[in-house]
Write a structure and sequence with these properties.
mainly alpha, 19 helices, elongated, 3 domains, Annexin V, domain 1
Length: 342
């Protein structure tokens, strides 16, 4: 044989090809791969690694080409979301403001796409699917819908399920990514997929308050009556969030005048301490000139008060509003389809 010719490297067995590939990837990547192998496989691969003394360029090229062909032909299952989290954490640090911001964007991006998909599902059809599932599944789904759509789905659920779902929703804080994805997989064939911001806050009393603000009054009354028998404090919390003192600006002039006649002057004086300029102006416009003048004088002369006292006064006014609404003496516009004023 001439001095310029080279002997072709011998063909490699499967385990030896794996050893060559791992050596070319480096120790960190190789370690990650070995974690996914069984004990016997790790032993075989480690022995093959130990036998390697040098990597011939031709061998390395053939191994990479074969790996590329197999990967292209069969594909590979990956968890892209988890991979992105790992990369971001390693690049920007664990629990840093920068990594936290990027990870939050990753979660919310998935939720935005999911909300768009769910928003097109008919309420009746979605409710039929959810009625056959565990109530917690229905809770997760409602948590990912807008308040208006969620209230429509709630109205289509069986009556005995409605209060259970609402109570669960009020207690819901966040949904782990794995659970959200499992829900999506389980219902995909029936309702075109369900998903939401993994780990994001998606339930709680405030979400229920927004939902109930859009719900029909008969449903609201029935659901709250059933929950109140079990947990009156939860119902009180939700009601306080459904309509705040600042929302009085939504009342028509006649309803606002009716409310102001029933409110204690001391409570109104305290409540106005933190009212917005627009609400204050509307209230002054709906009392007599003399009453408005006295209110302004008293507000100007009164000293500092505790925020807690102001909030309690505002809650008292909202409670009066709820009583008047229940008696049919005023209408809170925009809460349920039957309350639209024409």
């Amino acid at each position: 044989m001439g001095s310029g010719s080279r002997v072709a490297p011998p063909a490699l067995a499967g385990v030896d090809k794996a050893a060559v590939l791992l050596l070319s990837l480096g120790p960190d990547a190789a370690t990650s791969v070995l974690r996914h192998l069984g004990e016997a496989e790790v032993r075989q691969v480690s022995q093959a690694l130990a036998r390697v003394r040098a990597l011939e360029p031709e061998q390395l090229e053939r191994v990479h080409e074969e790996f590329g062909r197999r990967l292209h032909a069969s594909g590979v299952a990956v968890d892209g979301r988890q991979f992105a989290r790992t990369v971001v954490t390693k690049a920007l640090g664990d629990a840093t403001p920068a990594s936290g911001a990027v990870l939050a964007e990753l979660e919310s991006a998935g939720g935005a796409a999911l909300t768009k998909i769910l928003g097109d599902l008919p309420a009746a059809g979605l409710a039929r699917v959810l009625a056959a599932e565990h109530p917690q599944i229905a809770t997760i789904v409602l948590a990912h819908l807008g308040a208006a759509h969620a209230s429509e789905v709630l109205a289509c659920l069986p009556e005995d399920l409605q209060s259970d779902v609402v109570e669960r929703l009020a207690r819901l804080a966040s949904v782990p990514a794995t659970l959200v994805e499992e829900v999506g997989t389980a219902l995909r064939a029936q309702a075109q997929a369900l998903l939401r911001p993994a780990g994001a806050t998606c339930g709680g009393p405030r979400v229920v308050a927004e939902l109930m603000n859009s719900a029909d009054k008969t449903i609201e009354a029935r659901v709250f009556e059933q929950i109140e028998a079990r947990n009156p404090e939860l119902v009180s919390t939700i009601r306080n969030l459904m309509f705040t003192f600042e929302d009085c600006i939504k009342l028509d002039n006649r309803s606002l005048q009716t409310l102001l006649k029933e409110v204690a002057r001391e409570d109104l004086l305290l409540a106005l301490k933190t009212a917005s300029p627009d609400l204050s102006a509307k209230i002054f416009a709906n009392v007599s000139s003399r009453a408005a003048e006295i209110l302004r004088e008293d507000m100007a002369s009164s000293g500092p008060v505790r925020l807690k006292d102001v909030e309690e006064a505002q809650l008292k006014i909202v409670a009066v509003l709820r009583e008047l609404e229940a008696e049919g003496k005023i209408v809170v516009a925009g809460q349920g389809k039957g309350d639209v004023l024409v």
